[in-house]
Amino acid sequence: MAKFYGIGVGPGDPELLTIKAAKILKEIDVLILPESRSGKENIAYEIAADHINSAAKLISMEFPMVTDKKIIDQAGKMAAEVVERNVLAGLNTAFITLGDPSIYSTYHYILKHLSRDVQVETVPGITSFSAAAAQTNRSLVEGDEILSIIPATSSKDLMEKALEATKSAVFMKVYNQKDKVRDILKEFQMTESSVLVQRSSFKDSTVDYDIESGLARDKQYLSIILSRKES
C-alpha cells in the first residue's frame, strides 16, 4: 500500500540528511515541494536533490509566509488533497521540509486535513539549533536545566514568561525581529552569553558572538540565537 512521508532534510548540509530519509527519497513516486512564494529557490530540495528518485514527479505548492493561520491552513488543505489523490492512486508521496517536520513546519497543516485512509510516516530530521550547537561546540542544556525554544515572532510577554522559567534558550524566527530579541536579551542579562548563527551547517554559515553587531548586519531568514543565563 502506498504511503505519505513527511521528511525532515536537516538544517542545510546535505551530509546531515539521515540515511533513512535518503533511502525513502530514492523510492518515492511523487515529491511535494513547499514554496513560500512562486519562483523562489527551494532550499529543502537543494539539500536533498542528490537522493531524490530521478523519475519522481515534482509538485510545487505555495505555503505563504503570513501570520494569518486561515491562509496557511487553506494551503495545507490544498496540499492534502494532492497527497490523498496520489497516495490512493498507489503512488508513494513525500513532502520535504527543512530541519525536523515536527518543529514549526507546514507539514502538520497537511496532516490535519488527511483522511484516515492515508497511511503516514514522519521521518525526523536534525534541527537547526542542534546543528548550531554542534557548529559552535556548545552545550544547549545541562543536568536538570530547562531548555526553551522561543519563536521571536511571539509576544514580548510570552517570551518573558518563558525566560523566567528557563536556564537555556533557543530563539528561532529571528528574521525581522532583531530589535525585540536584542531588548529581551538585555532585560535578562543574556547578551554576553548568546551566539547568533546564520545558515547553520551551510558552507556560507556565519557565527557572531557579538550579538549587537550580528543583528545589525543584513537580514538573514535562516538565523537563530543560542543563549543561556550565566547566574
From TrEMBL:
Keywords: Cobalamin biosynthesis, Methyltransferase, S-adenosyl-L-methionine, Transferase. Pfam families: TP_methylase. Its EC number is 2.1.1.130. InterPro entries: 4pyrrol_Mease, 4pyrrol_Methylase_sf, 4pyrrole_Mease_sub1, 4pyrrole_Mease_sub2, CobI/CbiL, CobI/CbiL/CobIJ_dom. SUPFAM superfamilies: Tetrapyrrole methylase. GO terms for molecular function: precorrin-2 C20-methyltransferase activity. Pathway: Cofactor biosynthesis; adenosylcobalamin biosynthesis. GO terms for biological process: methylation. Residues 3-206 form the Tetrapyrrole methylase domain. NCBIfam families: cobI_cbiL (TIGR01467). This is Precorrin-2 C(20)-methyltransferase. It comes from Dehalobacterium formicoaceticum.
